[in-house]
Write a structure and sequence with these properties.
The chain is of the alpha/beta class and 160 residues long. The protein contains 6 helices and 5 strands. The protein has a single domain, classed as 3-Layer(aba) Sandwich (Rossmann fold). It binds 4'-phosphopantetheine. 4'-phosphopantetheine binds next to β1, α3 and α4.
Length: 160
């Protein structure tokens, strides 16, 4: 059985994240979507709120669970007995940092493999920051986020 972890900030989740979750759930036996619980990082949504949104998104997939982690991803992956870390890539600009992270993680534990999944091209421009920016100016984020979490996002993003 191959267990994979899809880690991230998910502040908030977007259609791009949902697309990776769906595709990864079709490839791996078990998928854990893991929210970074990082007290130093300036997240708009608490890790509980981010996990709640992800639970709604992941509900249709029987082999997907949502969890939190803090500290090193590689240690969390070991605790979960996962051999695969999934990362989504949108553009070359993502690549350099993700490549470095993958090599650092391999140095920390060479048994765990990072697998990159290319974003669906229709979401290549999309990020959590873009969603927050558009929502903060009253723009319509409905095409950018799963309908199940639209209201939660709108209620939380401060208006400028
Ligand atoms: O959605 P993001 O913000 O791009 O996700 C980044 C994340 C959570 C995958 C990354 O920050 C991470 O793995 N953090 C845990 C700390 C860690 O293990 N860092 C890598 C070795 S220095």
């Amino acid at each position: 059985m191959v267990r994979a972890i899809y880690p991230g900030s998910f502040d908030p989740p977007t259609n791009g994240h949902q697309d990776i979750i769906k595709r990864a759930s079709e490839i791996f036996d078990q998928l854990t979507v893991a929210v970074l619980e990082n007290p130093r990082k300036d997240a708009l949504f608490s890790h509980e709120e981010r996990a709640e949104m992800l639970e709604k998104i992941c509900a249709p997939y029987d082999n997907v669970e949502v969890d939190y982690f803090r500290g090193l991803l590689i240690e969390y992956a070991n605790r979960k007995d996962a051999r695969i870390i999934i990362k989504g890539l949108r553009a070359m600009s993502d690549f350099e940092f993700e490549f470095q992270m993958a090599l650092v993680n391999r140095k920390l534990d060479s048994r765990i493999e990072t697998v990159f999944m290319m974003t669906n091209s229709k979401y290549s421009y999309l990020s959590s920051s873009i969603v927050k920016e558009i929502a903060s100016f009253g723009g319509d984020i409905r095409p950018l986020v799963p309908p199940k979490i639209y209201e939660i996002i709108i209620k939380k993003v401060p208006q400028q």
